[in-house]
Amino acid sequence: MPDEPLELRPMRSRDAEDLATLRLATAEAGLLTAIGRRPLEVFFRLAADDPDTIGFVAREDGPLLGYALCTTAAVRLQRSAIRSSPRLWLAAAALAIRDPRLLGSAIRRLRALASPRRVPQDVEPALRLFDIAVTQDSRGRGLGRRLLDATIAAARERGYPAMGLSVLADNERALRLYGSSGFVPNQRGVRDDGQTYITMRLSLRMSGEPEGSDAGS
Predict the structure, then answer these.
(1) What is the pLDDT of residue 213?
(2) Is there a domain that residue 194 lies in?
(3) Domain around 129
(4) Closest alpha carbon to 15 in 52, 75, 51, 69
(5) 202: pLDDT confidence band, cut at 50, 70 and 90?
(6) What pLDDT digit, counting tens, does each position of 27-52 carry?
(7) What does the buried/exposed string (b/e) look like for 75-93 if buried means 16 or more CB atoms within 10 Å of the residue's CB?
(8) Are the C-beta atoms of 68 and 128 separated by less than 8 Å?
């Protein structure tokens, strides 16, 4: 039988349930996987309709194979998802009791959402690649590349001057993908769990285009 046609299209709010399922399946063990899918579904539903967010999904004959999401409004969207999910606090508390090592990380994350650190855009672009994920069975087909290319093209079309991201320093597959797409290393840091990460930056301006304001924000 011939391969089913791949559908690559902008993210829609009706994708939220499938997006949450994939995000949970590809997440590291910890707070996110313990609190359940409700906050994630809310987050993706809000993101799909948000004017400051760009998202694409890849589907094949219906099932979701992957997605990419970039936004200037990550903090606002996460706050809204948390406020809409009161059970999140109970789940977080229960997790902290089971594994106290996660309590400090959770508190720091909530503080960051309440009072986000302001970083100059010449260091970290306002537009961030928030997430990119592909199902385990669909890896090795170039879907990550296609999703990233579509996201970059849409961001450039909207007039954003640059896109940033952060990636774990030992994630060689992701580093190769981002590097070959034009992202360059910017800074290094260490997460709460001790893992080293690298921030990267991609200029979205065409060659010879003058510097200007962030038209997309």
Answers:
(1) 45
(2) no
(3) 6-160
(4) 69
(5) very high
(6) 765 455 555 678 889 889 999 999 99
(7) ebbbebbbeebeebeebbe
(8) no
Half-sphere exposure of 58 (CA within 13 A, CB side): 24
Q: Please report whether residue 155 resides in a domain.
A: yes
Number of domains in the chain: 1
Which amino acid is it at 71?
T
Q: Is residue 190 part of a domain?
A: no
Residue listed under structure tokens 């890849």: 58
Q: How far is residue 21's CA from residue 71's CA, in Å, rounded to a whole number?
A: 20
Specify the long-range contacts of residues 86-95, CB closer than 8 Å, at least 24 apart.
87/36, 87/38, 88/35, 88/38, 88/39, 91/34, 91/35, 91/36, 92/31, 92/34, 92/35, 94/34, 95/31, 95/34, 95/35
Mean pLDDT on 4-10: 88
pLDDT (tens digit, 9 = 90+) per residue, 81-124? 777 766 666 665 665 666 655 555 555 555 554 454 544 445 67
- ∠27-184-164 over CA atoms, to 5°? 50
- CA dist 156 and 103 (Å) reads 39
Are β-strands 196-203 and 162-168 bridged in parallel, bridged antiparallel, or unpaired? antiparallel
CB hemisphere CA count around 125 (13 angstroms): 31
DSSP reduced 3-state for 59: strand
144 falls within a domain: yes
Q: What CATH code is carried by the domain that includes residue 38? A: 3.40.630.30
